[in-house]
Sequence to fold (1509 residues):
Amino acid sequence: MQQNTANHPFRLFVIEDNRTENMLIHLALSEIKNLTIKTFSTATQMLEHLPEQPDIVLVDLILPDMSGIELIKKIQAYNPRIRIVVVSAQRDIDVLAEVQSLGIFNYLVKSEMCLTYLHQVISELIILMNYYRSQQT
Amino acid sequence: MPELDDIAIEKEILEIRFLPLVLIMMLWGLQILPYQPDILLFDRKLLLWITFLTLSLSALTLLPSLRQSTKLRRNLLIGYQAVLLPMLAQQLFAHEYYPLFLLIYLFGLSIIAFIARYSQLRLLGVLAYATCIVAIHPMIAAMPNEQLILTWQTALILTIIWNGTIYALSTKVRERQLSQTLQYLQTIEQNIQKQKEYAEKLHTEQLHLQNIVDNIDVFVALVDKNGIVIQINQLFLDYIGSHGVSTDLVGKPIISIAVNQERRRVVEESIQTALQGQTATGELYNDKVDKYLVFRYCPIKDRSTGEIYGVGIYYRDITQDHKAQQQLKYASNQLKAILDSIDQNVYLTDKHGRVINCNKRAQEGNLGLNPAPPVGELLLNNIKEAEKRENYLRHHKEALQGKIISVEYYVEPIKLWMQIKYMPAYDQAGNIFGVVTTIADISLIKRKEEELLDALAKNKAAQAQLAARETMYRQLLHASTDQIALKDIHSQYLWTNHRFKEFYGEIPANDAESQEKELAKDREVLLKKELITYEYWVRNQYGENHLLRTIKAPIWNPEGKIDKIAVFSTDITEQNERIQALKELIKAYQELSEQEQKKARELSESQATIQLLVENTTELIALAHANGRLKYVSPSAKKLIGFTPEEMIGHTWADFFHEDDLIKIQEAAESLRQTQGEHTLRHRVRTRSGQYIWLETIWKYILDEKDTIVAIQSSSRDITERMAAEQAVKALATRYQTLFNASYDAILILKTNPTEPTDLTVVEANTSAYELLGYSTEELLELNVLEIEDKISWQELRRRIKTLRNRREILLETRICNKSGQWLWVEIAVIAFLIGEEEYLQLTIRDISLRKQAEEAMKAKTIAEKSLEFKSNFLAKMSHEIRTPMNGLQGMTYLLLDTSLDKRQKKIVESIQNSTKGLLAILNDILDLSKLEAGKLTLELAPMDLRLCLDEVQDLFDAVALEKKLTLSCWVSDNVPALIVSDYNRLRQIINNLVSNAIKFTDAGTVTITAELSEALTEYDLLKITVRDTGIGIDEDSFEQLFDKFYQGKQRTAGGTGLGLAICKELVELLGGQIGLQSKLNHGSEFWFTFKAWHVQEHQSAPPPSTEQYTYRAVKPIHILFAEDTSVNQEVIKWMLEEIGVQVTIVSNGLEACEKAKSGPYDLILMDINMPVMDGITATQHIKTALSPAPPVVGMSANAMAGDTERFMAQGLDGYLTKPITPEALYEMLYQFLPESLERTAITVQENQAEQEQVTTDMPLMNPAVITHIKKLAGNHIEMLQGLLESFILDIKQIREKISHTHLHGNYTEMVKVLHTLKGLSGTIGASRLFDYSNALYGQASAVPQSVSSEQLEQLFQLMDATCEAVRSEYF
Fold:
């Protein structure tokens, strides 16, 4: 399977019901090559598309239809290799600790610098994944 | 050990002994047999001799003494044979009995051989044998008979062969014997060796044993069957030696240790007993060495045979034990004797209270107590009363901890003071093993103690009195005008008074003569031992001469000796002068008086005529001189008192007076001197017979022209009979009067007026009457009884008169008024009686006010109780009726206010809400009052801060005051404690009420609240709170009514129930204070009240101010079943519940509720109590029985009377809410039952403020860095950027709508979500200020959604607009 996907662009799934925010994320990540972004307005929708093998999922902790923690668990249960990046306005240290304990890739606090950081984090992740891919081939 | 030789010799002997016997028998045989007649010639004598010798020899060898020595026997035999055989041979030869000779010869040879065989001279024997044969040979040869020689030769050969054979045989035997002997010897040697070892061992053992025996502290001796000492240990010997008995005892009879006959017998008997196989024991006392011994005689048996061969004797010195035991016994007896002798009950109990021992008194059950329980049982069993049992257990326990407890108490039934002491009992190791309890009768001690105290007190008092008296005397002595001094018996001054010092200076410094005289007088006193008086001239310190009258008196000490002299000197210098002057005056007067006398004489003559008259009257006429001596007594004296005038003249009247009446003379004299007129005197005089008669005497002075008394005239008459009668009457009257006055009932004697029946005047009244009616004697006598009685009708009066006429008595109950205006209920018994012509009424009045009061109180109480009950019921019903619609009203207005209303509508709704609140307040007032009246209101006393309370009141009224343009101020004095204990809410209620009134009735000016300390007491402080206003004031006449219930005064115009002050009054009284006011119409009022502020205990502290409020939010799905018949209430509660995210299912009666409850799981059921079809309680009970577990059921009702809650809860409800239901109460109730599903967050004012303050921070609307970044990212895609911005603005617009909508509808969950979106969006796009504010608001809203105010949202919306604006300007 991995060999099949050896050179295909990395897939990134985003759950974001707000159009403006969606646009901002697209904008922030538009520079990164070899990355396709797919947006879903609810977590349930996203979960239905999991068979499309996303490489990265951006998860907000507060979602319209289920809690972020729940979603993370479901994604991990489906495929533990999917990299999860949490983007949330939650700053509660307890919540952070819980999320970290689930083994997510990174955590971004939604703030004004969010877009910059998001760009950085995803870029680094892509580099990393490229490296792994090259290792496997 | 038998000698080896002896064995051989024994055999020899046997042979030797046997041989002669055989020989002799042969000889005798020869004699008897008819062999040859010659042979018979054998000398019989010799034969007899030989026989005799042989037999005797044989016998000899049998002698016991010779048995011992076998050698000797053998030698004897040999010797005998050596003699006998040759003799025999010689005889035979001589008689030519050759064959016999040969036989003997050979026989002899054989013996030689035999001897040789056995003896050590074996070789020598053989030689001798041979020699013999050789020696005898000639003889044989000489024998005539050849046959004989042949025989001989044959015999010889045979003999030799025989001997040889025998020898050979014997050698063999001997060899064998030797080897056997050797073996035997070896065995013996081995045995000997073994025995030796054994012996050695035995010896060692014996030594050990001996050592042990010597060293044990028991005297040990071993005696044989005969009582001979075999063994004895050293200790025994030492002991015996110590009292002079020979210690060399071994081998001697043990009996020798006995010191006397008695002891000897004991020893013998004991040994005999032991020898019979029994053990003898006993005790003895050795008085020589003062030792107690215990002995034991045991049989000692042979181990193998079991035969008793000796006796073991053991003595043990038990002197120490014995003495100790004796002492112990003695001590114990002594102790027991002491314990028994003491006058207390003594119990010794172990740790568990079981009796170990007790003394005799305790056993007998002294002091009215039960006999002590037997040893081993609990002493507690003796105590019956629970309290005493507890005390006993406690004290017992304390005593076990080492305390000594003493308790005193008084036992009523036996009138004794008891003292119980509990003392720990220590064993020798000093550990407590039990408790000694003593019970003593200390009544005597108590009494003595009291007496002692009494005596002490008396003594003290006496001492104090003495001291006081001494001081007093000293002061008196000092104050005396006499010179007073105290001298000792040597004439030394001990003490002088002031006067003395004034006169002489410190001490008299008189000339020698005066001193000599002084000393002489002192001596005189000492000599005479009585006081002396003398006058003499002395010089004072200023050199003036004074005449002193001095009294010297001896002072006796308690032993009866004179030890001091008291000197009293009076300065009589002036007196002396006066006397001198007087004497001269008297002289002049005497001359004058002679003239007077002359005149008097003339006068008396003129009276002579009168005298005649006088003498004939029955009255006793007497005339006395001014000095009282009788000058004339009329002859009637004789008749009257038995004395003749002559007997009386010269005496004074006083001589005849009864001594009790003497005082009357003085009275009379005094009276006469003042009035100069007559004085009548009743007195007794003594008659001649010694009896007394009563006289009534009229005294009169006869004066001359200078008003000088010349004579006293008296005329007396006998009034004895009259007096007796009078006194009898008086005594009777006094007795009646006493009875009359002593009567508990008031008694009035009234005089009737036949013409006017209502005219009843009091003629007599007793003390009780005065007391009852309060009128004085005079007032009472002038009183018309009808005046004091309650108005009665003419009809009644007529009825009374009629009854009185018929029955002469009436009993009536009526009300009378006493002087002080008090109305009394009395019972009057009227009896009519006649004195002479006049009719009197006797009224016996009994005060039955108390009875009446009690009766009335009972009546009033019943009525009050009934009315109170009625009122309570009425109020309960009314409050229920009012509360139910009000619940709807309040809830609806509450909800209505949340809808979008225009200003006018809002105001209307608000006023509805206010009215509702007011109505509710009134309702609460009424309820409060009814609770107060029913006594159901209780105070909740807790530490509180009065200042805080006043602050709250001020806060509450500040707005109202401001509206009326009044100044509301509050001042608390420093002397008010920071913390007090009182009822915070009640105090606030009172103050609220007063302040509310003050503001209500004040149109301009100020309202001031002051608090100060009124009175500081030990247990509590009395604080005073005053509320002053400058309002309309109150008319003084209304003061009284002001605190009455439902009195409204001027309030009618101002609104209110008029219950406020009544409630205040009740509350203040409940708080232990008073309420009052000062006011003047139009000059403001001042209401004050006091209350008890108890002191705060150290551990108490004020509760934190209850400003905490909570917000609630469902965090888990909650489904509630709600049963309510009123649709309005259904809606209200439903909305309230939905607001915090609770799902509600509504049913409209109890039956439906039951069905629904069974059909699905509910987290909680809200149940209205009063519902059609099936009420809430029944429904609850159905649900509780049908479902398990049943969800909690919370009841709701408008019943707000005290006790309702408890009543409902008892019927199965889990919780209860009173209508009208407030959201807070409802949420709190839910939270209590579903704490996990519901989130409760505390919000405080400070938090809100802090959050609000955050907004004011200065911050750019848009973060330029983010904008730059976005722009950079967008690059040339302008459309993209534009689309983004448009999208943002659109989003913001939508968000705004959503927020305002959700907030309006209270859909807080949704609102929070929207706020979250806003926060994220604004953050991402870099709208700094909006992000910040929405972030804060989101935090607040997610905690307490309701706390988000419209103002905050307004601010948010403004910020949103501004951000949109900024975004537009930034990008376009």
Notes: The interface with chain A takes residues 1263, 1265-1266, 1269-1270, 1273-1274, 1280, 1283-1284, 1287-1288, 1290-1291, 1313, 1316-1317, 1319-1321, 1323-1326, 1328, 1331, 1335 of chain B (CB under 8 Å).
